[in-house]
Amino acid sequence: MTDLQREAPEKEIAMRGPIGGPRLLLRRLREVMAEPISPQERLDKIVIHIAANMVAEVCSVYVLRADGRLELFATEGLNREAVHLTTMRKGEGLVGLIAETAEPLALADAQHHPSFSYRPETGEEIYSSFLGVPILRGGITLGVLVVQNRVRRIYPDEEIEALQTTAMLLAEIVASGELQAIGLLDTEMALRRPLALKGVPIAEGVGLGHVVLHEPRVIVKQLVAEDVKAETERLEAAIDAVRQSIDQLIERGDVGPGEHREVLEAFRMFAYDRGWIRRLREAVATGLTAEAAVERVQSDARAKLQRQTDPYMRERLHDLDDLANRLLYQLAGRSFATAHADLPENAIIVARTMGPAALLDYDRSKLRGVVLEDAGASSHVAIVARALGIATVGEVTNVVGFVEPGDALIVDGTSGDVHIRPPQDIENAYAEKARLRARRQEQYHKLRDKAAVTKDGVKIELHVNAGLLVDLPHVEETGAASIGLFRTELQFMIVSQFPGMRQQQAFYKAAFDAVPGKPITFRTLDIGSDKVLPYMTKVEEENPALGWRAIRIGLDRPALLRMQLRALLRAGADREVRIMFPMIATVAEFETAKGLTEREVAYLKRHEYRLPSDLKLGAMVEVPAILWQLDEICARADFLSVGTNDLVQYLFAADRDNKRVAGRFDSLSAPVLRALKVVVEKARASKTPLTLCGEMAGKPIDALALLAIGYRSLSMSPASIGPVKAMILATDLEAVGKFVGDLIEAHDAAHSLRDELNRFAVAHRIPV
Ligand code: PEP
Ligand code: MG
Asked: Which end of the chain is more exposed for a tag (fewer CB within 10 A), N or C?
């Protein structure tokens, strides 16, 4: 019998209760942690201390292995021969149940619980009462800690709480990796195992690198408090400070992007939530430091979050998690907003959520990828990620909880796959993929200064689509002729306030200066529908895509449109300025927009501002009605630009972002190509310059069809220029013109021409 067991003779149990309480236990365990002994000896000592302190005959530690089994790692009271021999699945027996639910379980009569499973090798049938708690870290279950008693007893809440606190210390031991070598199999622990997660693809590309947490976790080094009273005071002071800062943020109203008011209101609600505060206070009262108490409570919230499927509840648990983070930062005396000056090479940023400006703050040259918990494909950070060309995946549930800074991670922004701590074979496969991609990019780069001319000598103009200043350096790299579509709304979407005239002017001037000598076709604000400005009240509409958007808002709020036009004209003093209007549905709309522009020109002239050297006004062709007003619009517009993303969705009456219907119709089909051909014919007849700037222009096979029906100017994302140019250089335009012409005129035109066109491309060695 050890000294410890003598400390707690059985007769005294009923009278005295737990010996010395959790504080004494934590102090003892801290001493054990510091001893220079082997990991197994340390665990063995720990279970003895816990059993003695909790006045239990049994204390056992089960550790979750990478293969999903729980292995008995140490025990006091059960048969020691069973250590490293007894294993069970998650969900199997009481221990498995705790691992699965991540909830404590206290039973006075364990053997009659439906999940009880008998293990003869442990000799456990003589114990009636059972108390088990999960060993959690960052919400992830790493194992189970159990105490058992021979007599039937009801474990009071304080004991459950005390055991949970103790489990935190064990979590540190498991997470440190020192148990790795002593398990049954020389296998990794659950925490460090490889994980494959799936999210939503946001920005194409493959990124291999190492995790950088956007909001670095505060590492809690000291778990056990020296002085409980002082710790309680620290906790209270930190709670007060966090409450005050949230109150101030809300009162000031200067809520930045990504920190929407509702989120802060939710924070405020939780910051005053009595249950939350009580749990924190209780954790400190058991002898933890304030930081460790926050981590305890946060870990429970994370564990619940992982099992929560109700989106509303998930959101609330996320808020709690964020609030706990703020509290940890406060206790550590750090500011919540962190700088990332020491970004490692090959960084993969992992964040719950992130504003677009925050992403721009990172050093682009070191970023290999971004993984987000809460960001869809149309979020603002997604727009920036695409503009920067960084492989990005969104909506990856709880990824922040699964990674540690520095972990190896692979992001596949094309498929939405995220591999955490990937096994060697996966890493090799991806490294090969990345090498291939880089080689292809290099080949495209070699085409940079080559004119895009077909085999039969027809020159095709290639332009790029852009919208942010970060896009513009790509233009030089691609060798494109101009910016064929500058989506001005993107800049409006990533700032926190509506930009005034001077701000807009400065921005457009910076755009001009970034691409000297290359024209830019600015499209006026195309907001509404899915493009929402964070600071504008969202108008609820039954059918937003058919609603108040783009030029419709501009014409109903002419002051807005005029401000933008004035900013564009002033930024373009002495230069060629090209402006086009989105979603033109009638000739009258174009006339009115043109009239507003002319008024602005007259105003500038009157006030003796320098004017653009040349001004061209164009209309986008993206509303089907305009297809039957082409003669009239060609007579009035200086140029046309076809937006196939919208035009195709309206032609088929199928929402471009709705997955249920998006795959139902194909842009490479007779109706679409017939409609697009009419535009070419009318533009040619009236000598109106024509470009096509929808996504079709950037996909080689679609672009091949566009060339075939007569398009000679295409505008696309910078990454598409290389592949499209390679296609053009290999194409005999006359042959493909005849092939596609015949296909779309055939009366039995197939639902999609894609397969036939692909076969044609293969037969003619056209890379598509
Ligand atoms: C289009 O509709 O094809 C287009 C280019 O504009 P956006 O995708 O911005 O609506
Ligand atoms: Mg459009």
From this structure: N
